[in-house]
Amino acid sequence: MAEIFTIALIWSSIRLSTPLILAALGGLFSERSGVINIALEGMMLAGAFTAAAVTYAAGNPIVGLAAGMAAGTLIAAIHAVACIRYKADQVVTGTAINILMIGMPAFLSGAFFLSSGSTPQLPRDQLIPWLPIWIAFLVVPLSWYVLYKTPFGLRLRAVGENPEAADAAGVPVARMRYAGVLLSGLLAGIGGAYLSIGQSSLFTRNMTSGRGFIALAALIFGKWRPFQTLLACLLFGFTEAISIQMQGVVKLPSGEDIPVQFIQMVPYVLTIVVLAGFIGSSRPPQALGIPYQKER
Amino acid sequence: MKLLRELLFPLVAVIAAFVIGGILILIIGDNPIEAYRLLLGSALSWPDGIGYTLFYATPLIFTGLAVLVAFRCGLLNIGAEGQLYVAAFATAWVGITLANLSAWILLPLCFAAAIVAGGVWGAIPGVLKARFGSHEVINTIMLNFIAVALVSYFTQYHYKIPGDPIMQTSPIGGGAHIARLGKIIPAFPERIPLNLAFILALVCCVLVYLFLWRTKWGYELRATGSNPTAAEYGGISIRKQIIIAMTISGALAGMVGINEVLGYRYRYYDGFSANYGFTGIAVALLGRNHPVGVLLAALLFGMLIRGGIFVDAFTNNVTKDLVDVLQGIVILFVAAEALLRGPFGKFGLLKRSKV
Hints:
heterodimer, A: mainly alpha, globular, B: mainly alpha, ABC transporter involved in vitamin B12 uptake, BtuC, 16 helices
């Protein structure tokens, strides 16, 4: 049992947590401003595909990363305009974006790379295995600072808790919410780019495989706070790392494999338990999900 | 006039999605008119096109109705995906463990397994919301993943034929098979997997309509959805309505298992659902949360799925992923109603109707 708790496991946990941290902090900005973001999955897919495709075309992963960020932000802009300007149901819009982004990268790669949903393999020197990890761990304290120590953060939280009062105090509600949602796309875009040009060397169909939703779970488990969300992401990254390491190595006393499915369930079960209030209370921002209608 | 308005809006959304899809097809270097001609032509040919279109529409009718019932109670069930997985597995489980029973006993038991398993899996987020106030959207998302992991565990470790490289269970007993429509309709070939579950889906459309608009229980459920405060003053228990709505919703989603396991593959096949649960949201929204609308929207999406396969095969660059893209755009337009209302509103076409 001891041989699996190694440096390699810790290292693998950090790598697997990175995309979760980036996407979850993205979700934090959006949800703290009052806009539900279940489209993190789609924004990550946009970032992952664009980063890999542009890196292949430009031969430079930094350009690819920037493109991935731009793609995430662009998808976030669709979510923002639909939810804020046109007051669409935020969950439904998020679902639409997720479905759209399962199809779109595959549709485009089918045409541009004549493959069934993946981009061409990138050479090793065109990958950025480190940069996104640094960014992820820097963004956590930065988010905390921005959210709690700057006027921007105060306003962002205000429009998420009580938009009427914030509006009365002269805070531009819509503009703050746009900022929150666009930031979420930017960060989720980096998270997605890490998957395609950091962890692996190409984009494959639906490569996020639910990480956007695990990030959302981490955000709720972390009670919509930066450092707690980081811890939740590390925990979920660790469960994923351990499920990979244990496969075929550790056996039950009966000699059978430990079913990975049960380890995979951990984040989701924990989230339901936390949300039901069994481990402390997890209270979402007061105005989460409610479009703001300015009084006329 | 009201009916016309109800129809016009989804129609505009669909046309808008097709126009954007057409532009995308142009960008990647194919002829959109040719692609759409292929898509519709292959989806409406007799008998294969129509047969498969109806077959693909069947699960979407169930999930669309599931989303509709929850929505009418003010809830968004994005957990139909998990509900249908659990239900399909439960159906196969009954069909495998009781394989030797005669059809007269086995078939009703399998039907019950699908409905009960789906209903229970749907009731969980309902109870969690009624009891703890936790949001059904998050809980249904989480339960989707739990369901997928759970049934994949049972398939892999307990019900797979040893040595089978495919993640699927052993076959169900012959008594649990339901007839393909080819057996019943003379000129209709039996190779098309369209089966009696489609008729069941049509019956469910009628039943959901009768339940919601012609019974006291349905009235209470809708009252809770349209104005919870007023409903509570009127003596309706909101908590009870939430649990009832989510249970019915889950049971409807669970009936996908009847089509998949009893009518098509005759076993549980891991990962069979092509996002039926999520497409159900699109179907319900496009269908204006009315059973007739759901039926029409499901037929449309069934056509897209069938046609998408042909477009993939017979154009240079367009793949069947076009279908996901079109679906996503349709939901976006339907969700952001005001977007379409804006420019058209001036001409009085799409003024907000008071429901």
